[in-house]
Amino acid sequence: KEQEENTAERTFVAIKPDGVQRKLIGEIIGRFEKKGLKLVGCKLIQPSRKLAEKHYAEHKGKPFYEGLLDFITSGPVFAMVWEGKEVVSTARSLIGLTDPLKSPMNTIRGDFGICVGRNIIHGSDSVESGKREINLWFAKNEIVKSGVTIEKWIY
Ligand code: ABT
Ligand code: MG
User: Fold this and answer.
1) What are phi and psi of 34, to 5 degrees?
2) Residue 7 above 70 pLDDT?
3) Rg of the chain (C-alpha set)
4) Where is the Nucleoside diphosphate kinase-like domain (predicted)?
5) Is 4 helix (H, G, I), strand (E, B) or coil?
6) Confidence at residue 150, expressed as pLDDT on a 0 to 100 scale
């Protein structure tokens, strides 16, 4: 029971076209796994313009919006769902700040990025955004059920 409560939170994480092209998928999955988070869904997907528009709806009208859509649809994206205790904020900590140059070393963006418009990876910014984004990118049957594996070495 306690274990169910600890691991129930989920977040949507996506390695953007720059991260995929730079062969960072394995490195990034490794960092999330080593932290103790659990991968419950993943796929390589070329996002449609429509999916990108829905994903970045909050930025509609901003000066960088069209360029952002061009970028995110420019190549394959590695979409993932991760599960774990406070996984939304934990994932954001592993990812770092929006601007890779301001992001500390030992974060993904701090270690691998230079430019805010090529910041390698996305992570949901709240539990609510996480639910919305997981529903947007994944069908229900593409995510494994909670509690299928027991994480007794972590919780
Ligand atoms: P995402 O994980 O992509 O949502 O990034 P994050 O939440 O850290 O930052 P936000 B503010 O959501 O940025 C979304 C994308 O827009 C890009 N961007 C943002 C710019 O290019 N210029 C800007 O001035 C701002 C604020 C960065 C993010 N993605 N990329 N690529
Ligand atoms: Mg964001």
Assistant:
1) -65, -30
2) no
3) 15
4) 8-145
5) helix
6) 66
| CA separation for the pair 64, 62 (Å, rounded) | 6
Residue with tokens 């709240």: 126
Amino acid found at 153: W
ipTM: 0.90
The answer to whether the beta carbons of residues 112 and 18 sit under 8 Å apart is no
pTM over 0.90: yes
Q: Are 65 and 57 in contact (CB under 8 A)?
A: no
Does residue 16 have its Cβ closer than 6 Å to ligand 1? yes
- Spell out a b/e string for 121-136, using b for 16 or more CB atoms within 10 Å of the CB, else e: bbbbeeeeebebbbee
pLDDT digits (tens, 9 = 90+) for 95-108: 999 999 999 999 99
Question: Rounded mean pLDDT of 41-63?
Answer: 97
Among candidate residues 122, 123, 137, 138, the one labeled active-site is 122
Active site (annotated) includes residue 122? yes
Environment class of 3 (CB within 10 Å of its CB; exposed 0-12, middle 13-18, buried 19+): middle
